[in-house]
Design a protein that fits this description.
Shape of chain B: elongated
Strand content of chain A: 25-35%
CATH topology of one domain in chain A: Immunoglobulin-like
Number of strands of chain A: 7
Strand content of chain B: under 5%
Oligomer: heterodimer
CATH class of the largest domain in chain B: Mainly Alpha
Structural class of chain B: mainly alpha
CATH superfamily of one domain in chain A: Immunoglobulins
Helix content of chain A: 40-55%
Helix content of chain B: 55-70%
Radius of gyration of chain A: 46 Å
Number of domains of chain B: 2
Largest interface: A-B, 44 and 54 residues
CATH class of one domain in chain A: Mainly Beta
Number of strands of chain B: 0
Order of helices and strands of chain A: HHHHEEEEEEE
Number of helices of chain A: 4
Shape of chain A: elongated
Chain lengths: 224, 183
Amino acid sequence: MPQPAPTDHYTPEEWSAYADGEAPVEQREMMRLHAMDCPDCAGLMRSYKELQQGAEDLLRHAEPPRPELRERVLTTGKGAMAEEHTRLRWQSSIGRLFAAVIAIGLVIYAWNLALSPGEAPAVVINRVLISRYFVEPPSLDYDIGIANPSGRPVTITRAITRDPLGGELKDLHPPLQISGGKTAVHILGRKVPESAHLVPGTYEITLVTSHGTVSARTTVEKEK
Amino acid sequence: MSIHELDPVTLYGCQQGDTKALGVLYDCYRQPLYYLARRMVGAQEAEDVCHEIFIAVFRSLPKFRGKSKLSTWILSIGTHLCLMHLRQRRGPAAQTEPLESADDAPLDTLSPAYEVEARDFMRRLSAAIDTLPDTQRLAITLRGFQEMSYEQVAGMMQLSIEQVRATLFRARRNLIKRLKEGS
């Protein structure tokens, strides 16, 4: 902002701020020099200073309140403070209780998350069939679909099949892993005699998983 | 007039509700707070408002953390309650004061006669301050507390520093006008 020359007038508002010692630092000296040569501006500044001095004097010589007010303030004030202290103590206790409840809740949640088996996956048998190979013995295959609805991965460690052709308990090496929220298809097979056919009956599979045991079954109506 | 600050031990006593310490606080701040109340709401209600301010101060003391000077903090509470009181008394419609342009202000000064008649000047000045609009009256009153900077006044009145500067100027221009009219 360009500075006025010492001969330029300053505004009354600027003199009002000057009288309060609140004029910008870089302007003060210019204003002081200007006032020395300008009776109008000097008069303004003097008037504002007198008014400020007058306001301070009024306060200095102000009447005090009646002495009774002291007793009234202290009596009521003590009661108000006691109430406030009680309120703050309650507030603080409630706050601490609330924080403790939240903390306990978080611990329980974390504990459950760490230890609970989580939601078990769902398994369906898409079909069962006997696969025949050229050199190897045939195998009875369970074509299954597995859905893992939980937010955590599930591990399948064992599969148990039971059907009209017999049954098998098979540990999976390596275990079958399915990520949280994912689905997978898998074929579990077991060797059966060369002469075996898919005979009518119920074909059942049970999977042992990290989130619990799940089963599915299907029925074959006629021999294949 | 500068306001004394309480020493930390007395302040701690006040926060604990110690009667003697609260008495020291009262004695320290009764004059400025009563003056502020008297100036803002008038002599009739000044004592009740002053009482109300002290109770509000006592209630809030346990939460005072010393982020500002105690005197500034107490005067802020006083200012707030005085303004609340005026709002309740006058209703929301009376809040706005006409804004005058500083540019068309006449170059008005006090006549030197006021320097001579100091007592008379004080009496007239006091009466003239009473006729100012609320905001101007409050700004002039707060500036009367000698160490109150524009920044502190702005904080208490919730105005910008520029607004405080303009308000004080308008107040002074009005005061000069009224002092001249009454002479």
